[in-house]
Amino acid sequence: MDGMIENSIAARDIRYLVHGSVDLARQRQNPPTMINGGKGIFIFDENGTPYLEAAAGMWCTALGFSEEELIEAATEQMRKLPYYHTLAYKSVTPAAELAEKLAALVPIENAHLYFALSGSEANDAFIKFAWYVNNALGRPEKKKIIARKNGYHGATLGSASLSGISANHKLFDLPIANILHVSDPHYYRNGLPGESEAEFVDRLVGEVEALILAEGPDTVAAFVAEPVTGAGGVVIPPAGYYTKLQAVLDRYDVIFHADEVINGFLRTGKMWGSEAMGIRPTTMSMAKAITSAYMPLSALALPSWFYDAMERGSTEVGVFGHAATYAGHPVSCAVALKMLEIVERRNLKAHVETVGARFKERILAFKDHPLVGDVRVIGLMGAIEFVTDKANKTSFVPTGSFAKRLRDHAEERQKLIVRAVPAGDSCAFSPPLVITIEEVDEMFDRFAKALDEVTAEVGA
Ligand code: PMP
């Protein structure tokens, strides 16, 4: 706690509050930056210093940090009805309206919507529901779920098991049984020397098919993936990957569950990552931008055959035995309805297309930097991957150390918040969707300065 005032809020924070995604021991010397305010794409620390938030918090505050219409929607709903549940033959209007609205938006016919509070909880519910449905359909052995290395799906027992990041498993006794992982479709990192993109696609899809056959198609229920991987480094699979993958999944009657928690609501430039990537998802989870993160909310979209099987199961048991106090929370749902109204009224899609073009141009320009190995970009989501040697794609040691150093430097010196992703050595950008062209320039100008300064420090 060097230099920290003993009784400061940051000192009290680490004395009492348990944080995630930190080295807990290092945090004693490195207390958190306390964030006390926000306006547009900027946040303010306790001294009032503004930071340009290039990560939209955790890839989530789509409308920025001061959208009055969302605040009003929450306030109005709180005055009318701050809480009621959607269990045991009761419901609330905002939840019913939001389910109807989302059913019209998702690329799933006759969709039914389940609401929860976080991306983790939606993905966890997916696992439970898929197991329930296969029991109800009389195929109780069809339970295994295939996910991908470096995918991220959440922190709860089931969703953390789906995640393919080792730090989410080690010491936690995860993954749980029946979760399998296949290779990450990150061509730059995982393509073999001399292997073309088409060959890479065939190899990875072949791996999925071989796994399904080895396990037995009758035991495999679902394949789970983020259309574009977020935390794993903004990985955009090569052309043809999803088409070929879906053909395999269809052949063995395996559900495609698209995790749209980051991708959904225009992050990729399309409403859904599935749309951007040409996926026909069977089921989908979404969260984050659904309320611009102003209230906790997630959703799981299910096709009618799946819902019908849930109904059949509940008839057998006498009740659908899955309940959550806050499922369909009226304030969260009212904020989500307002968010979706704003997306349409302000034509946010056209805005993302316009600023996305500048975003792409600016981020791709970093390809010329001597320490940049790869740049990946789609919509308003991008990553820059660092290497010590471009020709051999050699990573810094330990892997990830350069991106973390750059992230810390950018925050301290340039007042710019970027994410150092937990997989690989990349800095990720996912600014609020309302960012302007001038702000895109400002963001990358600050980043370029930080990169030059850190490059000079490491003597490259
Ligand atoms: N899925 C994806 C793709 C995510 O990025 C995240 C969170 N970053 C989650 C699921 C989990 O969401 P939450 O943190 O809201 O539980």
Report the top-level CATH class of the largest domain.
Alpha Beta
Q: Mean of residue pLDDT?
A: 96
What is the number of helices? Answer: 15
CATH topology of the largest domain: Aspartate Aminotransferase, domain 2
Major sheet: arrangement of strands:
4-10-9-8-7-5-6
Shape: globular
The CATH superfamily name of the largest domain is: Type I PLP-dependent aspartate aminotransferase-like (Major domain)
Structural domain count: 2
Protein architecture, described:
With 460 residues, the chain is of the alpha/beta class. The protein folds into two domains: 33-66 and 347-457, Aspartate Aminotransferase, domain 1 (Alpha-Beta Complex); 69-345, Aspartate Aminotransferase, domain 2 (3-Layer(aba) Sandwich), CATH 3.40.640.10. The protein is built from 15 helices and 15 strands. It has a seven-stranded mixed β-sheet with strand order 4-10-9-8-7-5-6, with helices on both faces. A four-stranded mixed β-sheet has the order 1-2-3-13. Strands 11-12-15-14 form a four-stranded antiparallel β-sheet, covered by helices on one side. Helix 6 links the parallel strand 5 and strand 6. Helix 3 (68-80) runs antiparallel to helix 12 and helix 4 crosses helix 12 (330-345). The longest helix is centred in the C-terminal third of the chain and has 21 residues, at 437-457. It is globular, with a radius of gyration of 22 Å. The chain starts with 8 loop residues before the first helix and ends with a helix. The model has no long low-confidence stretch (mean pLDDT 96). The structure holds 4'-deoxy-4'-aminopyridoxal-5'-phosphate (PMP). 4'-deoxy-4'-aminopyridoxal-5'-phosphate (PMP) binds at residues 58, 118-120, 123, 152-155, 226, 230-231, 259, 261-262, 287. Pfam families: Aminotran_3. It comes from Arboricoccus pini. GO terms for molecular function: pyridoxal phosphate binding; transaminase activity.
